[in-house]
Amino acid sequence: xxxxxxxxxxxxxxxxxxxxxxxxxxxxxxxxxxxxxxxxxxxxxxxxxxxxxxxxxxxxxxxxxxxxxxxxxxxxxxxxxxxxxxxxxxxxxxxxxxxxxxxxxxxxxxxxxxxxxxxxxxxxxxxxxxxxxxxxxxxxxxxxxxxxxxxxxxxxxxxxxxxxxxxxxxxxxxxxxxxxxxxxxxxxxxxxxxxxxxxxxxxxxxxxxxxxxxxxxxxxxxxxxxxxxxxxxxxxxxxxxxxxxxxxxxxxxxxxxxxxxxxxx
Length: 265
Description:
By secondary structure, the protein is mainly alpha-helical.
């Protein structure tokens, strides 16, 4: 329980950093400098006003200087990241596998809210995440899937794990790109962006081919049901409204990894 509590606190800090990334990356701003500032008045935020969750509550969701409202996304991302980290460590212990799971969870949270707000899936999260997933497969193997059936057993667990991760990234991203290209050719408008292609590659690198395909399937169902319901309720034009498909993929991917971890306990 102590390890999970520490993971929660660490997750709050990572969530705070994700909020910086979600705001700055789509605007091509550095996530390092300058220090955190209020987007409304551009005053630098003091450290005591930048404590995850606590500062939001003490400030009553308003900037200390200009009284501009602080978006609900800030405490939500912090709390969600902290909760995910705690659950992963609670089920896996303080292990390398838990660290890998936390990294994947952080990437998905960042992508979910970035796409939800700006309809942008930053390359730092997608391409960087796909590369990290394949690289980590060397030391922290992913579950063997259908790809391993076509590989020589003599290759060993590490090589097979890397091939599984790379195949999961490449095959699923190629599939999504093909679907998007066919849709664009038939409907004469974009259906899936390159960001979605790169994001599913990240899921494949961490979850393998089967996990990425399941992510794509569940994400598509969520997008169809929730997205179309929102379009109807909000009175949006379904022909022009840009659905944040990456957000639905991220929710699906988080659900899959949490489900897998619960089975492993």
